[in-house]
From TrEMBL:
GO molecular function, one term: protoheme IX farnesyltransferase activity
Protein name (database record): Protoheme IX farnesyltransferase, mitochondrial
Main location: mitochondrion
Matches recorded under InterPro entries: ARM-type_fold (IPR016024), Protohaem_IX_farnesylTrfase (IPR006369), UbiA_prenyltransferase (IPR000537), UbiA_prenylTrfase_CS (IPR030470), UbiA_sf (IPR044878)
Top-level division of the source organism's lineage: Eukaryota
Keyword list, A-Z: Heme biosynthesis, Membrane, Mitochondrion, Transferase, Transit peptide, Transmembrane, Transmembrane helix
UniProt keyword RNA-binding present: no
Length: 604
């Protein structure tokens, strides 16, 4: 029997099934395939898990083997990302060769080199880009000189250089530094030596026996690189096409050297046919994608609008909007009652404005502190890996300043614009969310129950803003929010249970899967009881009017509960249906209760 640890690792680094299914069905070059590749690139750029990086790099390399995927891969700058992976991890290996994970680092480097090799052999566009911007492939020079690299990786490196140096790559290129009339017959040989002296030296050492290898392919590839490529120059002579090296006659040369190579700029693509690359006449045009390149991913905003976007994500704008709406609902539920205080009646618009602004700011502060505390874990989850702290769009110090300012302003506005009770509830909720709920997520599944209390406090704040006190009516909507969160979050945590597990969170859906489904069903039933309890303070019409929505919530909770655990696909599908139902359920039920409170007996 496999251990729990092995079972856990078997699904820890799997791509979401939705993307696996779509990639399996999607045709190369389709929008669905592009979306899947975008998800892979996003995960590769933000994840810190080495095993996960290896799987993603291997997947990208496999897609690169099909030329039809190359336009998407070029548009996503996959070749540059893979080169950056090689650069980063080769530096780690070189600076500390005794590192325990050296073998894992070398495996990742080998996978990245193989991916670039597939891209180069499949795409003429990539061949031209790398041959004319050879500083981009400088990490490959270091790879072939590193003694611990396996022969497979070295063979892939040589294959890359054979493809980008082959004369047929540049044969029809206009104004290329490799072509010039009336040049010497040895010009092309000089060019290759000038471009890649490290590779030439390596190939000669392989042929001379100075470097021994058990892989016979290295001998063959070295011979092709040193001999067969140059032989093509004599064929060109018969057709009055000369191959030359950089000279004053070539107009588009940047002669600044970098990493033993010249930076050459030219942009023409023609097909390459060699024993090591597929024949393809596909016209490759990079796909314009919305995915962020590595440079833009960490680029800080340069305008006020950009910073507002960062602050909105830091504040979890959608969650903050839900918090504000429930606070307003609590205030609206109390408005028609005889318990409304004189201060609210004197300035209702000002009190509502203070409630909205103050609640928004305090919620933004709590959510920002939460992201500061969890930034290292957010990087491990797909649903949180694009947050600004993970992408380093804002520093932890900057986020702390933002959280402090919003908390101070929010509490001050609530205190002066409503009353001290509302400000105290907001302060208590910030502390409960940041000091209890957030750390508890990594300790116990009880965090869900604590988090539900956090979500139930905003309606009480709204009630207190209108009445200046906490009465029975304030707990009606609070109880609804408390019970509703269980089917909602149990479904959500089931959908993201692999990611939560990978990040180290202790969720009921992970430690006790059946209990998670039981809790979702139990609290769906409780939600119905709460709605009828609320109708006791309004009228019975309210309880009956909410019945269809409650029945729908119970129905999908029951389906989620009854789905066999052995069929994980079915359970996940039912969890998704329950999650979507819960999103519709809450606003509809709140709307019905509010309408009935104005049309019926005021809540007392």
């Amino acid at each position: 029997m496999p251990s729990d640890k092995s079972k856990k690792s078997s699904y820890r680094f799997q791509i979401d099934s939705k993307f696996r299914r779509s990639s399996g069905r999607a045709a190369p070059g389709s929008i669905e395939r592009l979306q899947y590749l975008e998800s892979l690139v996003n995960e590769l750029c933000v994840t810190k898990v080495l095993d996960y990086k290896q799987q993603i790099v291997a997947n990208l390399g496999n897609f690169a083997h099909d030329p039809r995927n190359c336009p998407h891969l070029i548009g996503l700058d996959v070749h540059l990302i893979l080169i950056e992976v090689i650069r980063e991890y080769l530096q780690l290996v070189s600076t500390n060769p005794s590192e325990k994970r050296t073998s894992d680092y070398l495996k990742l480097i080998s996978l990245a080199v193989a991916g670039i090799c597939n891209l180069v052999t499949s795409s003429q566009t990539i061949r031209l880009q790398l041959s004319h911007k050879s500083q981009d492939i400088s990490p490959l020079f270091n790879v072939i000189q590193y003694p611990l690299v396996d022969p497979e990786c070295l063979a892939n490196c040589l294959t890359i250089f054979i493809n980008i140096c082959a004369p047929s790559v540049h044969l029809q290129e206009q104004n290329c530094v490799y072509f010039e009339p009336n040049c010497s017959t040895t010009a092309f040989t000089s060019t290759v030596k000038t471009q890649f002296p490290v590779v030439v030296t390596f190939a000669r050492n392989i042929l001379s026996g100075s470097i021994t290898s058990e892989d016979p392919r290295l001998q063959t590839l070295s011979k092709i690189f040193l001999v067969d490529s140059f032989r093509h120059s004599y064929v060109c002579l018969k057709n009055h096409i000369r191959l030359c090296y950089a000279s004053r006659h070539c107009s588009n040369i940047d002669v600044t050297t970098s990493n033993n190579s010249y930076r050459l700029n030219s942009t023409y693509a023609s097909a390459l046919v060699t024993p090591f690359s597929p024949s393809t006449t596909i016209l490759e045009k990079p796909t314009q994608s919305k995915v962020l390149t590595p440079a833009r991913r960490t680029q800080k905003p340069r305008s006020l609008v950009g910073w507002i976007g960062v602050w909105a994500v830091l504040s979890k704008a959608r969650l903050t909007g839900l918090v504000v709406s429930t606070a307003l609902a609590g205030c609206a539920l109390a408005a028609p009652s005889p318990l409304v205080c004189e201060a609210f009646l004197a300035h209702p618009a000002g009190s509502l404005f203070a409630l909205v602004v103050g609640t928004t700011l305090t919620s933004a502060s709590a959510n920002s502190i939460n992201q500061i505390m969890e930034v290292q874990y957010d990087a491990l989850m797909k649903r949180t890996q694009m947050r600004p702290l993970v992408r380093k769009l804002i520093s932890p110090v900057g986020a702390s300043v933002f959280a402090s300012i919003t908390a101070t302003l929010g509490l001050a506005i609530l205190y002066t614009g409503t009353n001290s009770l509302v400000a105290s509830l907001a302060a208590a909720n910030i502390l409960l969310y940041t000091c209890v709920y957030t750390p508890l997520k990594r300790v116990s599944q009880v965090n869900t129950w604590v988090g539900s209390v956090v979500g139930a406090i905003p309606p009480i704040m709204g009630w207190a803003a209108a009445t200046g006190s906490i009465d029975f009516g304030s707990f009606v909507l609070a109880s609804l929010l408390y019970t509703w969160q269980f089917p909602h979050f149990m479904a959500l945590s089931w959908l993201a249970r692999n990611e939560y597990d990978r990040a180290g969170y202790v969720m009921t859906s992970i430690v006790a899967p059946q209990r998670a489904r039981t809790v979702a069903l139990r609290h769906s039933l409780t939600t119905t009881a709460v709605c009828f309890l609320a109708s006791n303070g309004i009228n019975w019409v309210g309880g009956l009017a909410t019945a269809p929505f409650n029945i729908a919530l119970i129905y999908y909770s029951w389906r989620f509960y009854r789905a066999p655990l052995e069929n994980q696909g079915l359970v996940k599908a039912e969890a998704r249906r329950l999650f979507r139902t819960s999103l519709i359920h809450l606003p509809l039920v709140m709307s019905v209760l509010l309408i009935c409170s104005f049309c019926g007996t005021p809540v007392a």
